[in-house]
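To the wet lab folks,

You asked to see what we're planning to order before we commit. Fair enough. Below is the target structure as tokens, and below that is the sequence we designed to fit it. If anything looks off to you, flag it before the synthesis order goes out.
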């Protein structure tokens, strides 16, 4: 998915919600035509919501036009940007393309997060919580068990020890491998060269060390626990 398509879907959703509130206000107005005071009290909130969602539709529609004319920049391979649509997270590179997504689903065994690559053609990993223990499964049905504590997770991956920590009084998360910082997730510090394409409050994943594809999947799965 591209960031352009993501904004298009957002604008379409907000437009439909705006229409819903507009129609609802009109219906109540017709039903309560003889009760003007009651009609006013009911229709005004619906009308305000309709205006708010229409403004959101207009904003994202304009962003679609703006992003569409931006030239491709050199990709920053050290960062990914997170956008959410319902129960799905999309991980965009600096050029505005997402090749990986994580979807949260309710199953017979509770809520699970599924990581997909290349659209939804291939499930790479699954993560879920079982009796306060985080279970990570790979495509070969191998399982890793991570321990959960308030504001932190820790476990092993390919014989390396990992620690995922949330900073106190700060919306920042850090991932350490063998006591070395390899990744952070932070909201509100969007690099200036990305502000034309992404929203200012878009969470940014910054990598500080080289990582394998499997390690990247692990990082994205852990981050999904923050937002899903």
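Sequence we intend to order:
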């Amino acid at each position: 998915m591209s960031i352009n398509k993501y904004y298009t879907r957002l604008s379409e959703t907000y437009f439909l919600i705006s229409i819903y509130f507009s129609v609802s206000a009109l219906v109540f107005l017709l039903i309560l035509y003889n009760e003007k005071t009651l009609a006013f009290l009911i229709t005004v909130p619906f009308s305000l919501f309709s205006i708010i969602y229409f403004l959101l539709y207009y904003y994202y529609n304009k962003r679609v036009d703006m992003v569409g004319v931006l030239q491709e920049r050199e990709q920053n391979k050290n960062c990914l940007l997170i956008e959410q649509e319902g129960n799905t997270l999309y991980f965009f590179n600096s050029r505005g393309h997402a090749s990986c997504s994580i979807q949260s689903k309710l199953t017979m065994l509770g809520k699970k997060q599924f990581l997909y690559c290349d659209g939804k053609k291939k499930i790479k990993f699954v993560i879920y919580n079982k009796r306060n223990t985080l279970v990570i499964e790979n495509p070969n049905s191998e399982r890793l068990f991570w321990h959960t504590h308030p504001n932190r997770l820790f476990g092993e991956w390919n014989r390396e020890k990992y620690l995922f920590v949330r900073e106190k009084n700060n919306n920042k998360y850090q991932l350490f491998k063998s006591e070395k910082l390899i990744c952070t997730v932070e909201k509100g510090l969007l690099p200036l060269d990305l502000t034309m394409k992404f929203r200012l409050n878009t969470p940014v994943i910054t990598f500080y060390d080289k990582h394998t594809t499997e390690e990247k999947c692990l990082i994205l799965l852990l981050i999904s626990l923050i937002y899903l």
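Structural context that might help your review: The chain has a mean pLDDT of 80. The helical segments are 3-31, 36-69, 213-227.

Thanks,
Computational group
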